[in-house]
Amino acid sequence: MAIEAPISKFKRNGLIIWIVACIAVAAYCAYDGYFNEKFKTKHTNEDGSPDSTLVFNRKAPLFFIGAGLLLGAYWFAIRNKKLIADENELVINDKERISYDSIQKIDKTYFKSKGRFVITYKDNNGKQVDRKISDRTYDNLAPILDHLVAKIT
Known about the structure:
Helix content: 40-55%
Structural class: alpha+beta
Radius of gyration: 24 Å
Distance between the termini: 18 Å
Oligomer: single chain
């Protein structure tokens, strides 16, 4: 029986908030830079050239929309990632596989207080690797940790 830990709501909701914030700032800057006549009059020099604030409000929306799109693409890429603890190995995002035999120790000192634990294991090259797994990245970590501790003891 495999235990799954999907991407945390903290991470997903944080990305959505940043996407909405980027789009809102882009809309605000676009409104002030192109449509708000009072703002344009206030930030135009005597010779008719825009000052730095008006130039920023005219150029910034493109960058904020771009940032929102990049964050949206990142959200789309990670939305289905998960941590899976099956009978023989720990699978991280369908890419990294850690067999239970290679795990040397699990440091769960900060799991109750900070929601993270560290797995120390040997990779394929024989190098010792520390992998920190946090509840800020994955939900449902307590059953995964219990399963890992049961498998390595």
